[in-house]
């Protein structure tokens, strides 16, 4: 049996805090209901703290997930596990698909193939959504995110992961992160941990074709695994064609019983046309059309990148270990993005180099589980901005030579103070440097904003093991996030000034667990949080140069929300051969300014007030499954002044599949009603009614796929 697991409008009265209080009341009721309903049927507690089983996503039992399960059960806050096996049972081509059932994360498919707009707990709610800051991405515990906190062009292919850990907000301390959105760690499969040789193929609407082949081998103390993949798609809009080829490999060597080392290598060549943005009238008339300037200017996002990494672990003894890692990445970006002759055109051609190191020491002694770690990263971006004519000459307008480094030191203790109580406390110390050096070719003038950012960020939390399979948790933590290079470069002041780092505090309470009730199983993961921030960095689209942005600090903001993942496996017969498995991911958001001199208590843009995604699958013990899927997404604001509203939308779909020991097939239909909706958009200060800022969502689409293990 598989269980998944700007400015306010003149005359507008200031908003009250009633909505915040309502959200808290709703969260408290939902939290209590999630705990009390299953616990009414629970057996008496044994008094021993037991690791929870994973509560997300379908997949077979896998002993290698033990560390990830422990990470979830020993964290006093929102952590979700996503199984790579489940991702192979539906059409997954981006992080949006992967994060579909992760509460608290708003992910929207972009018009750039694999790219997604990501926001976790209200991070990245501005015009610089292309850099996806606020979430720390890692592969096998090693950094993918650049040293300045940017994830520009760093989306990790979900199908390269065996499982994924999503630690929201301050719950990412074990990775050294203190960002608003937290961290996502992609754990690679290896030949040694049972990853199968396999072939994956899928095809469907908009001429999508994708194929992957994986092969590996174990020979004594050596093992290796290689995946080759290729993808082509015409996209659901004009001027949206994509071609991508990738290689993902890792090889391990066991140096005796105590030391293991593993090398990782990735290479991706991705060419992507960009269809641009539409006005509301254009979107209503034909959401498949491209922006005229995108076609005339041949907007593209072409990225060639490669990455090498190594991680070595020394098991010093039965209760202690030391892990050291090193990663290096190069990325070449060719990015025509603005074409408005004779006034302005912009082509970005840069080379990024990113180096990251990590060191982690773990030691268990008595009732203490100690962790000490160090992360260091350095990023350089060199190249230039060009004025250009498509398929013709280009002229260098600005030389770019930007640098960032970041040092994170973190310590944590998980202290079992009683059989059913664990206190978790620790701190992160961060020291970061940012330097932007832009030279205007025409007159030789230089912009050189640079700054240093230092802070210590403490955290304390508690976990109560209510029953062997039910936990209550709470934490109080500090958040801290220096600006990215993109934000410094786009400072609205346009001089040598530097932005302040965002900082604030967050309190969180919640529960997670699973409970058998007869032949039925219920599982849940619920968290309620409330964060007060100062100097949040927000950017709006520059009205004089669409496609570029202007960044600034704002005084105070509030980020609050309820995150819930609730599901069940309900038997329809005494033998359990027929089951219904509903799953619902619910996110309620309240992101707003607080008594701002310009925006009052306006809502922050980009994220919906609510997002409900789910499915209700029938499963048979033979391996067959089928059922409907649904998305209920709330209204969003497209500007800081709250004058431009993007409507709510509801989508319906179906998915089905059949699997055996060596093969699987699936079919998936999305947006069956062919509803027109907005996926994401550019953020303005005040968006005019005819502003061209919208990116349409995908129309009715059908995909089929197959997997063969050999």
UniProtKB/TrEMBL annotation:
Residues 269-672 form the TonB-dependent receptor-like beta-barrel domain. Residues 74-183 form the TonB-dependent receptor plug domain. Keywords: Cell outer membrane, Ion transport, Iron, Iron transport, Membrane, Receptor, Signal, TonB box, Transmembrane, Transmembrane beta strand, Transport. InterPro entries: Beta-barrel_TonB, Beta-barrel_TonB_sf, Plug_dom, Plug_dom_sf, TonB-dep_rcpt-like. It is found in: Cell outer membrane. Gene3D superfamilies: TonB-dependent receptor, beta-barrel domain, TonB-dependent receptor, plug domain. Transmembrane segments: none annotated. One of its GO terms (cellular component) is cell outer membrane. The keyword Repeat does not apply. The keyword Oxidoreductase does not apply. GO terms for molecular function: siderophore uptake transmembrane transporter activity. It is a multi-pass membrane protein. Belongs to the TonB-dependent receptor family. This is TonB-dependent receptor. It comes from Piscinibacter koreensis.
């Amino acid at each position: 049996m598989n269980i998944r697991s700007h400015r306010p409008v003149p005359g507008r009265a200031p908003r009250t805090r009633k909505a915040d209080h309502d959200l808290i009341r709703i969260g408290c009721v939902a939290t209590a209901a999630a705990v009390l309903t299953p616990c009414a049927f629970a057996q008496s507690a044994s008094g021993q703290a037991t690791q929870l089983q994973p509560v997300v996503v379908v997949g077979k039992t896998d002993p290698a997930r033990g560390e990830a399960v422990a990470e979830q059960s020993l964290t006093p806050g929102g952590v979700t596990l996503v199984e790579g096996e489940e991702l192979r049972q539906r059409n997954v081509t981006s992080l949006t698909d992967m994060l579909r059932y992760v509460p608290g994360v708003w992910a929207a498919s972009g018009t750039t193939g694999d790219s997604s707009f990501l926001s976790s707990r209200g991070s990245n709610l501005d015009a610089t959504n292309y850099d996806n800051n606020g979430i720390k991405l890692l592969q096998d515990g090693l950094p993918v995110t650049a040293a300045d906190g940017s994830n520009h062009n760093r989306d990790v292919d979900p199908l390269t992961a065996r499982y994924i850990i999503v630690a929201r907000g301050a719950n990412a301390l074990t990775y050294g992160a203190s960002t608003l959105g937290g961290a996502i760690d992609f754990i690679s499969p290896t030949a040694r941990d049972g990853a199968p040789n396999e072939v994956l193929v899928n095809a469907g609407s908009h001429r999508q074709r994708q194929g992957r082949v994986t092969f590996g081998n174990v020979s004594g103390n050596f093992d290796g695994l290689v995946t080759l993949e290729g993808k082509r798609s015409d996209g659901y809009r004009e001027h949206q064609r994509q071609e991508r080829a990738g290689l993902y490999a890792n090889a391990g060597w066991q140096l005796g019983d105590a030391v293991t080392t593993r090398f990782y290598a990735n290479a991706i060549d991705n060419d992507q046309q960009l269809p641009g943005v539409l006005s509301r009238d254009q979107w209503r008339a034909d959401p498949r059309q491209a922006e005229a300037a995108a076609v005339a200017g041949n907007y593209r996002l072409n990225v060639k990148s490669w990455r090498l990494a190594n991680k070595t672990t020394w098991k010093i003894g039965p209760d202690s270990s030391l892990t050291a890692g090193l990663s290096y990445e190069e990325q070449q970006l060719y990015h025509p993005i603005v074409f408005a002759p004779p006034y302005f055109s912009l082509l970005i051609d840069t080379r990024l180099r990113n180096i990251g190191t990590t060191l982690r020491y773990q030691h268990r002694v008595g009732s203490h589980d100690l962790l000490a770690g160090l992360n260091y990263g350095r990023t350089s971006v060199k190249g230039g901005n060009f004025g250009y004519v498509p398929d013709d000459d280009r002229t260098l307008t600005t030389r770019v030579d930007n640098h960032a480094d970041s040092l994170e030191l973190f310590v944590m203790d998980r202290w079992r103070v009683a059989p059913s109580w664990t206190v978790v406390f620790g701190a992160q110390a961060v020291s970061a440097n940012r330097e932007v050096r832009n030279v205007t070719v025409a007159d030789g003038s230089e912009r050189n904003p640079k700054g240093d950012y230092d802070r210590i960020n403490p955290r304390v939390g508690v976990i109560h093991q209510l029953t062997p399979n039910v936990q209550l948790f709470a934490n109080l933590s500090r958040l801290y996030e220096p600006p990215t290079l993109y934000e410094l470069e786009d400072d609205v002041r346009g001089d040598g000034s530097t932005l302040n780092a965002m900082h604030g505090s967050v309190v969180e309470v919640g529960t997670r667990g699973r409970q058998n009730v007869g032949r039925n199983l219920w599982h849940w993961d619920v968290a309620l949080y409330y964060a007060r921030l100062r100097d949040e960095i927000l950017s709006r689209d520059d009205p004089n140069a669409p496609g570029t942005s202007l960044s600034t600090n704002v005084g105070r903001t509030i980020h609050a929300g309820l995150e819930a993942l609730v599901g069940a496996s309900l038997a329809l017969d005494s033998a359990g051969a027929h089951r219904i498995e509903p799953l619902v991911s619910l996110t309620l958001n309240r992101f707003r300014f607080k008594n701002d001199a310009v925006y009052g208590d306006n809502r922050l843009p980009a994220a919906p007030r609510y997002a409900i995604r789910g499915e209700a699958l029938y499963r048979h013990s033979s391996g067959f499954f089928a059922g409907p899927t649904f998305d209920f997404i709330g209204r969003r604001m497209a500007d800081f002044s709250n004058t431009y509203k993007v409507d709510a939308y509801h989508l319906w779909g179906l998915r089905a599949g059949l699997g055996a020991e060596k093969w699987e097939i699936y079919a998936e239909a999305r947006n069956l009603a062919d509803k027109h909706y907005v996926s994401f958009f550019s953020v303005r200060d005040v968006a005019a009614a005819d502003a061209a800022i919208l990116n349409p969502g995908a129309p009715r689409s059908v995909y089929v796929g197959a997997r063969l293990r050999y």
